[in-house]
What does this fold into?
Amino acid sequence: MRNQNIDQCWQFQHGLYGGFPDHEKAKSIREVHLPHDYMIESNVCKSAAAGPASGYYTEGVAYYTKLIDIPQEWEKDEVYLHFDGIMMNATVDINGCKAILQHNGYIPFSVNITPYLYFGKKNRVTVTVNPSMQPNSRWYSGAGIFRSVELLHMPKLHIASDGIFGYTKSIEYDTLGNPVCAYLHTEVELQNETLENKIALVEVFLTKDGSDEVLLCRKQKMQINPNTTDTAYLNLTLENPELWDVENPNLYKLHARVTDLGVFKTHFVPSEKNTTDETSVLFGVKTVTADVKHGLRINGKTVKLKGGCIHHDNGMLGAVSLYDAEYRKISILKKHGFNAVRTTHNPPSAALMEVCDRLGMYVYDEAFDAWGIMKQPGDYNQFFDADWKKDLTLFMKRDRNHPSVIIWSTGNEITERGGLSNGYTLATRLAEAARTLDPSRPISNAICSYWCGLDEELSLENMKKIMGEVSEDTVSIQNADTGKNDTSWEEYSEAFTNGLDIVGYNYMEDKYPLDHEMFPERVILGSENYPKEIGIRWPMVESTPYVIGDFTWTACDYIGEAGIGKSVFLEPDDPLLKIGSFALMPHTSSPFPWRLANDADIDINGGLLPQGAYRSVVWGSNKTHLYSYEPAVFGKKELISSWGFTNVTKNWNWKDADQTPVQVAVFSNGDEVELIQNGTSVEKLTAGTRLAADLPHSFLFDLTYLPGTLEAVSYKDGEEISRDTLVTSGPAKELRLIQEKKELSANGHEVAYVRVEIVDENGIVVPDAALRLSAAVEGVGSLAAFGSANPITDENYTSGTFTSYHGTATAIIRSGYQTGMCTLTVGCEGLDEKKMAFTIK
It folds into this structure.
């Protein structure tokens, strides 16, 4: 086997690995299966250096070690380790000898360990992880070997790591628009680790994913000189191709095989024994173009990106990336209308990329959050100058075959965007490097306003302009405009955009018309946008050809940047209202134990939040969504953060509130909505009459709270199109477990999510139940995480105890490497335990 996963059974311990026996220290060594995040296992700390940026998590140095058998018969071959990501500053030692140091934790990398091996013996691999330069990230980073590891065994002449590249040059269509022919270009990078001039036969062939039938094969001979890397170039013409897009994610496999034919001295001398190396990648037939007339076109068809920004963490699992967790996340987003994700602000895992290929989800694939000027003292700025070319190359070579990738991003809100520290030239160099690595996709960069990034003189001048435009309606000083007629942003940023095919605008939608006049060939993407503004902005995106889409911040809630999506209810004369949403920036108002950003469409356990329901309505859903405000806030003014949403919940259990005024909000595409309380019509509102938090497609009702049933019925042209209901529950009576799947494979990587609901005697979820729950797993599986989506908590997702939030919690069961059964038991004081069995096979 060329590639062997070695995630099973690593020894883990905090601190440094030492060869000298230490019996006390040895007691704390434990066995873990990768991927693993040791930061998520720790307790949050009020004094954490990164504070709310990390969700009050912090961690120090730790190591992983494993003995691997290297067969004697491999002695004349090459052996590599491939890591998809280690967070962060990772040193890989083989038998005590340093083999490589990789700083950026998000970057996949390989290391040749052949020189350090003893063949026919066990060899020790030790990985030391150092995230201790805190704060090192603007969000929760995690710590450890949080993505998978592979052992690679290859002949001396072999295909390089991530050495296959293929893309679609063009597609021909018949008169009905059906694809009849695709012209493909492939490149195979070869490494010759011998001292001879090798003559190789390179073969490239195509199969459908899941099939062994070869559809097309092409061959090319070439010479590779001693201890060098060289590339074979082959074109393929595929008849009647099945194209890849989000609606029809048709996949092929692109295979490459290299055969060592012999050596060239003064003429060709055949080898007595031909060695071969073969590997493959997923591949999709797809073209991507962008222009101001047609916008973004996938396979010649215009597409508007309904996008969401996502961080790399998987909620309660921390930074651990498992295929099942990524699959579940992307499935939920697609279900609720998203067709694109932006990997903010770093390379994602290989697992996420494969999921996007298979499910059909476009990817705006991002490289860096910081270049040479720091955003946090311990971040990538320390290594950017030395490492960016290497890291960009490793990242793009891994991802460039994925059909889901439609746009590359060289960075996000880069401080050098105003030209500081040679920023203009750097921007061009990064765009050039990206285009060299992949000429088939557009290059972008997500640029924001100049709340930073200018020298002191220009910063003061810019801030005066901003303050002159600030009003109570200003969303955020951080991204405030300098006025519709002011073109300083355009002047400062124009040189930075040199080399970009698509310019990403973070929170600057009002600039689109002016900038189109100034730069008529510029294709614009809303690369980051305030979530509550989608109802205002989306009609403009749909109707404007040169604007190709919108990415909300964020699609999925995440750990860190704690509380950026909060809102508070204040008395009408509260002075904070005059400050506006900037008063709720996390550094001033997210004290411990704030943990989550609280700014998303989907919570960390996969639940749809009001913001996500609203977005789905804006995007055309005919469902009705009914939510309630708390009666205690009636008559108060809501101050919503820049990244927040109006604070409504699925709750009709308001204690001690009978006969008090309350407001409810309905999100609907109906032209009328009727509210019915306990069978009696309260009111029917026409669209636009009264809006909740000024949201288009919303309806705001005032009524008197009475327990019972509340219904919202939406009508279009006088006909009911949908309805939603809130019901007052009784007291908590029992636990209900909802199992998403019953069987897992014994590969150490599969996970099953179980929703825990606290229900009354009629099976209705008790939405105000905040009860202490316990969870445990017996058998051949393990409890990977247990907790709720509460954004404010000091509880530990790995402890097995957690307090329910809105009457729910979630357990995540992870398979091991043994077959058999495992049982989840969930308990709560005063309620009967509930059990659920899983088969691990």
Remarks:
- The chain has a mean pLDDT of 96.
- The two ends are 22 Å apart (CA to CA).
- DSSP finds twelve helices and 47 strands in the chain.
